[in-house]
Design goal:
The chain has 174 residues and is of the alpha/beta class. The protein has helices at residues 9-14, 30-42, 60-66, 69-72, 81-90, 154-173; strands at residues 18-25, 45-51, 75-78, 93-98, 105-106, 117-122, 139-142. The chain has a single domain, classed as Alpha/beta knot. It contains six helices and seven strands. A seven-stranded parallel sheet has the order 3-2-1-6-4-7-5, with helices on both faces. Strand 1 (18-25), helix 2 (30-42) and strand 2 form a beta-alpha-beta unit. Helix 2 (30-42) packs parallel to helix 3 (60-66) and helix 2 packs parallel to helix 6.
């Protein structure tokens, strides 16, 4: 492990993050929650919000997939996702849901600027995002899919969107 040059959770917290917050709204599976913690750690996400029925650390099931990321990623619980979205907007974030809706924009067609602060909300494994969010948010991001299902696991969807945003910010920094 020493050869991998891994930093400590304390060092991670001190690093500059990409201006991205991720919001999990009413995620049922604690394994999914833990996996998103790990993804947020991997791509230096600024903060993770857990909303609604989403379980919070400390939790054995979350820890099983988070593999310590609950100690490095800054997180907060917010009961109401709509109120959180409005608060984030007041704090200067552009808030997007990850959802297939009529007005959604394909992920590859979104271009962020270095000054953009972004929040992405992923919703429940069965029902998606809370419909009350649609008129509140700045837009909806859709991940293009070419198979027969047109449905992704919430952790996969979150990971794809997080990576695309992180990739854009890394290019903008260079």
């Amino acid at each position: 492990m020493d050869e991998l040059n891994r930093i400590t959770p304390e060092q991670f917290k001190e690093q500059q993050k990409i201006p991205l917050v991720v919001v999990l709204d009413s995620i049922r599976s604690m394994n999914n929650v833990g996996s998103v913690f790990r993804t947020c750690d991997a791509f230096k996400v600024e903060k993770l919000y857990l909303c609604g029925i989403t379980a919070c650390p400390p939790n054995k099931e979350i820890s099983k997939t988070a593999l310590g990321a609950t100690e490095s990623v800054i997180w907060e619980y917010a009961e109401d996702v709509v109120q959180l979205a409005q608060r984030l907007q007041k704090d200067g974030y552009k808030v997007f849901v990850v959802e297939q809706v009529d007005e959604s924009v394909m992920l590859q067609d979104i271009a962020f600027q270095t000054e953009d602060k972004i929040a992405v909300i992923v919703g429940n494994e069965v029902f998606g995002v809370d419909e009350r969010l649609l008129p509140v948010c700045d837009g909806a991001i859709e991940i293009p899919q070419f198979g027969t299902k047109h449905s992704l696991n919430v952790t996969i969807a979150a990971g794809i969107v997080i990576w695309e945003i992180a990739k854009q910010y890394l290019k903008l920094e260079n």
